[in-house]
Amino acid sequence: MAADTAPVLSLPQSLLVLGGTSEIALATARRLIARRTRTVWLAGRPSPALEQAAEQLRGHGADVHTVAFDALDPDSHETGLGKVFAESDVDMVLLAFGILGDQAIDEREPASAVRVAQTNYTGAVSAALVSATALQAQGHGSLVVLSSVAGERARRSDFIYGSSKAGLDAFAQGLGDALHGTGVHVMVVRPGFVRSKMTAALEEAPFTTTPEAVATAVELGLRRRSETVWVPGTLRVVMSALRHLPRGVYRRLPL
């Protein structure tokens, strides 16, 4: 294989998005379609928004299908996602669903906190394992998991959401180790605060990024076969420092 074609061929021709209305996922899909991707499956709860997302990607030149998927219904994951893999090989699965929750409400109402945990962690574990098993059966493919810097260390302002992402991040790292040498590549993406509809009501944090910037980082990570990607890259150093601060000092920071 020629050296100049290898990076291009590391990008997927077919893509399955778990969380088909995610702004980050759609930005990533658009970028990959512009490079090499020709077939996309958008998995999510049936809705006008999901159909609009599919139509948008068709406008970029891809063959796009929608798939019913509910993170809170793990019993349906194997059957629902299995239909996609039974149809053809999938080069990349992008796990992009999740909810922020509302910290103040979630602290007062445990059922709301549990919903955050079940969506962001339990549902993701189920979907990731189903996808990983199918990718391993193919003998190739990438599983890209959208984590968050919020999972690096619990913050008073969003520790419920952050703890769910911490669990997902640790799980994805372990899954990557388990799949090493099988032909399946697992990549964990850790964005900082992403400016999007989901975060529109929140005050922006330092190192704020965009869905398009995350998409660019995902593409670069795929080309490099990276295992961990930070967006922006500066956060790798920042979070390393914050992670090792004494707890009493960390608690006093305006986070």
3D architecture notes:
A seven-stranded parallel beta sheet has the order 3-2-1-4-5-6-7, with helices on both faces. Helix 2 crosses helix 8 (211-224). Mean pLDDT is 92; it is low at 1-6. By secondary structure, the chain is of the alpha/beta class. Helices cover 49% and strands 15% of the residues. The chain contains ten helices and seven strands.
Task: Provide a concise account of the structure shown.
With 255 residues, this protein is of the alpha/beta class.
List keywords for this structure.
255 residues, 7-stranded parallel sheet, 10 helices, disordered N terminus
Produce the secondary structure layout.
Blueprint lengths: L5 H4 L4 E5 L4 H13 L3 E6 L3 H11 L4 E6 L8 H11 L4 E4 L7 H6 L1 H29 L2 E6 L12 H21 L4 E8 L19 H14 L3 E4 L3 H9 L3 H6 L3
Helix pairs in contact: 2-8, 4-6, 6-7
Structural category: alpha/beta
Helix-residue proportion: 40-55%
In spatial order, strands of the major sheet run 3-2-1-4-5-6-7
Shape: globular
Largest sheet composition: 7 strands, parallel
Element pattern in H and E: HEHEHEHEHHEHEHEHH
Work out the number of β strands: 7
Low-confidence stretches: 1-6
Family: Belongs to the short-chain dehydrogenases/reductases (SDR) family.
Protein name: Decaprenylphospho-beta-D-erythro-pentofuranosid-2 -ulose 2-reductase
Keywords: Oxidoreductase
Pfam families: adh_short
